[in-house]
């Protein structure tokens, strides 16, 4: 299906606010907002509440702009994938031109006002994040390499670093490790999903690792990335944003995550078909808790340090 085919779809006369909001990928934006907020509050420099609110808002708008531009460019493959076919563009509720205009406008607005409200390091990091996700990942490498999820994960890992930079005007070891936490979490999270929705990527001819290298190789990649993730996640506990609570959470969740990755890795194809990918689904559900629990622990540690004198 070509991009041109979407021009014959119904115009946006019945489009609602929710259709335009859906272009911003609100579920992804939730993660962006949360991790950026944690990066901002975990920083060793206090920020006025109003400026902090503005910083998180502009980072969220930048993330939403990336989502709109991604949907604009990927509208052809969204139409043939079951889990994305109801998105606003393939559903005929919003045109590609409207999505492009919204994405570009929000990108410029978010970058400029984040720079003005906080500092230009934060604004520059946000601009680079949008560019990386839209141009490097979506337009260039997503359809060329089975490492697309690894590359795309880098863009989603920047928000805590941007939040930290908005507060401090600097990049630190702690902010880089928060970036690594999200970056290394993304591949096992999405590859586990890809294992039981593989036909979507087959139909869309997206070179997901499950399609190009098969399930056996995908399981091995999940295990390798989970081992790397555990090392960085626990290491973050020994920086200025860590502490006893964070370390307890990290040790428990990474033990469970490693066990889940090992359970996936050791199974054969016959077993996977027989139990309908039960281990992969369990691992995927755990991955949803994993990142929020780690950043939640960082947030609590920041609160204890700031308000409890610890």
UniProtKB/TrEMBL annotation:
One GO cellular component term noted in the UniProt record for this chain: plasma membrane
GO molecular function: protoheme IX farnesyltransferase activity
Membrane topology reported for the UniProt record: Multi-pass membrane protein
Keyword Cell membrane: yes
Record localization: Cell membrane
Pathway assigned in UniProt: Porphyrin-containing compound metabolism; heme O biosynthesis; heme O from protoheme: step 1/1
Database matches in InterPro entries: Protohaem_IX_farnesylTrfase (IPR006369), UbiA_prenyltransferase (IPR000537), UbiA_prenylTrfase_CS (IPR030470), UbiA_sf (IPR044878)
PROSITE patterns, alphabetized: UBIA
Reaction catalyzed: heme b + (2E,6E)-farnesyl diphosphate + H2O = Fe(II)-heme o + diphosphate
GO biological process, one term: heme O biosynthetic process
TM segment ranges: 28-44, 50-73, 94-114, 120-141, 148-167, 173-197, 218-238, 244-262, 283-304
Entry function: Converts heme B (protoheme IX) to heme O by substitution of the vinyl group on carbon 2 of heme B porphyrin ring with a hydroxyethyl farnesyl side group.
Record's subunit section: Interacts with CtaA.
Family membership: Belongs to the UbiA prenyltransferase family. Protoheme IX farnesyltransferase subfamily.
HAMAP family linked to this entry: CyoE_CtaB
Further comment found in the protein's record: Carbon 2 of the heme B porphyrin ring is defined according to the Fischer nomenclature.
Protein name: Protoheme IX farnesyltransferase
Source organism of this protein record: Sagittula salina
Lineage: Bacteria, Pseudomonadati, Pseudomonadota, Alphaproteobacteria, Rhodobacterales
């Amino acid at each position: 299906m070509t991009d041109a085919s979407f021009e014959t779809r119904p115009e946006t006369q019945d489009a609602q606010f929710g259709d335009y909001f859906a272009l911003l990928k609100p579920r992804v934006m939730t993660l962006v907002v949360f991790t950026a907020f944690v990066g901002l509050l975990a920083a060793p420099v206090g920020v006025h509440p109003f400026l902090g609110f503005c910083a998180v808002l502009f980072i969220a708008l930048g993330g939403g702009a990336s989502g709109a531009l991604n949907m604009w460019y990927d509208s052809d493959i969204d139409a043939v994938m079951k889990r994305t076919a109801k998105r606003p563009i393939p559903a005929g509720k919003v045109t590609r031109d409207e999505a492009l205009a919204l994405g570009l406008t929000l990108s410029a607005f978010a970058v400029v006002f984040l720079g003005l409200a906080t500092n230009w390091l934060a604004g520059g990091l946000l601009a680079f994040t949008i560019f990386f996700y839209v141009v490097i990942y979506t337009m260039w490498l997503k359809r060329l390499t089975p490492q697309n999820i690894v590359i795309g994960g880098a863009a989603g890992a920047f928000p805590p670093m941007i939040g930290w930079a908005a507060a401090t005007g600097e990049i630190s070891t702690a902010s880089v490790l928060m970036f690594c936490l999200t970056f290394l979490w993304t591949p096992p999270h999405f590859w586990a999903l890809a294992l039981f929705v593989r036909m979507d990527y087959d139909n869309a001819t997206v070179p997901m690792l499950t399609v190009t290298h098969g399930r056996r190789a995908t399981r091995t990649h999940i295990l390798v990335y989970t081992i790397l993730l555990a090392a960085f996640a626990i290491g973050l506990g020994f920086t200025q944003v860590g502490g006893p609570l964070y370390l307890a959470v990290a040790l428990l969740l990474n033990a469970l995550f490693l066990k889940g990755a090992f359970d996936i890795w050791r199974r054969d194809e016959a077993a996977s078909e027989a139990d309908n990918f039960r281990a992969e689904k369990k691992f995927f559900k755990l991955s949803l808790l994993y990142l929020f629990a780690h950043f939640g622990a960082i947030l609590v540690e920041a609160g204890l340090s700031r308000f409890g004198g610890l």
